[in-house]
């Protein structure tokens, strides 16, 4: 059972001078960055981050730009490249603070941004940015019908919001009928903000979705960029797929494993796209098993 861990809070400066808010679990271990999916917040990682801290890592669960408590970017710069530049900034700062290059765990958008950051750094400098990477239900190519469903939910109430938190909970329950409904809405409140008009809206900048059709207005360009980034992943890599994922199909997994032959792969049965939320115990077990040997290896060299 995961013990209750009260995180500290810190901030980083992103690539646009934007403030990034992070919870910190643990204080002495090798750093690991946890990057949430689009429309989520750092609180999606609370259980995983606590388990990482208990195993000796220092986990940084970060609100990505325009999400949660992190700053909205004035010019609406929310391309995948923008998110990747923030990962580069955070990883460099953590390496300076801790003396170790961080590992990264990225779900969906977080996986894209960390994969791009690592792949571009290796391509441009011949050096790795991260010590290892875990990609959660994301590959360079995905099923765009699944993307449309996810984004449809995100757009459905983005402008008008909800009259109450309970109304928001009803919308989530309708979208995720396979997931048991929480007894309390306190967790959901962390993904909402109370607007001046008294309505509750998702805790992210609406401009984040303004230019998105699929994952990007130029899908082919984006796919080629991600395929190139995947080819440049030379660090230990784990791909975790939800067994019932709406986005990542077996063909996408096969392509990724051909691009990254050294990558390990875990299929989490019963989980959809939001793997950690659907089957957190199985997800955490896979991640901890993967990172465990790496952690020991790094500790031995320290």
From TrEMBL:
Q: Which Gene3D superfamilies match?
A: alpha/beta hydrolase
Q: Which GO terms describe its molecular function?
A: hydrolase activity
Q: One Pfam family, short name please?
A: Abhydrolase_1
> Is Hydrolase included in the keywords of this UniProt record?
yes
Q: Which InterPro entries match?
A: AB_hydrolase_1, AB_hydrolase_fold, Carboxylesterase_BioH
**UniProt entry keywords in alphabetical sequence:** Hydrolase
Query: Mind telling me which PANTHER family this protein's record contains?
Result: HYDROLASE ALPHA/BETA FOLD FAMILY (PTHR43194), PEROXISOMAL MEMBRANE PROTEIN LPX1 (PTHR43194:SF2)
Query: Under what name is this protein listed?
Result: Alpha/beta hydrolase
- Species of the source: Pseudorhodoplanes sinuspersici
Query: Mind giving the lineage of the organism this protein is from?
Result: Bacteria, Pseudomonadati, Pseudomonadota, Alphaproteobacteria, Hyphomicrobiales
């Amino acid at each position: 059972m995961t013990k209750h861990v009260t995180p500290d809070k810190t901030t980083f400066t992103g690539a646009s001078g934007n403030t990034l808010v992070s919870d910190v679990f643990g204080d002495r271990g090798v750093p690991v960055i946890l990057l949430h999916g689009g429309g989520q917040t750092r609180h999606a990682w609370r259980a995983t981050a606590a388990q990482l801290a208990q195993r000796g890592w220092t986990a940084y669960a970060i609100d990505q730009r325009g999400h949660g408590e992190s700053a909205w970017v004035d010019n609406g710069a929310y391309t995948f490249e923008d998110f990747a530049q923030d990962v580069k900034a955070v990883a460099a700062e953590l390496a300076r603070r801790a003396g170790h290059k961080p590992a990264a765990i990225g779900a969906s958008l977080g996986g894209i941004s960390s994969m791009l950051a690592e792949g571009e750094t290796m391509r441009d400098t011949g050096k790795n940015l991260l010590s290892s990477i875990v990609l959660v239900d994301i590959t360079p190519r995905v099923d765009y019908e699944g993307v449309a469903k996810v984004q449809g939910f995100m757009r459905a109430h983005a402008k008008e919001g909800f009259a109450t938190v309970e109304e928001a909970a009803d919308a989530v329950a309708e979208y995720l009928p396979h997931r048991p409904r929480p007894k309390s809405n306190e967790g959901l409140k962390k993904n909402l903000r109370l607007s001046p008009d008294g309505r509750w809206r998702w805790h992210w900048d609406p401009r984040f979705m303004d230019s998105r059709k699929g994952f990007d207005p130029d899908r082919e360009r984006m796919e080629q960029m991600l395929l190139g980034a995947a080819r440049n992943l030379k660090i230990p890599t784990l791909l975790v797929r939800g067994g019932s994922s709406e986005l990542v199909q077996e063909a996408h997994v096969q392509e990724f494993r051909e691009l990254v032959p050294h990558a390990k792969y875990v299929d989490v049965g019963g989980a959809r796209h939001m793997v950690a939320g659907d089957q957190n115990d199985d997800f955490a077990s896979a991640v901890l098993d993967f990172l465990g040997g790496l952690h020991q290896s790094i500790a031995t060299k320290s």
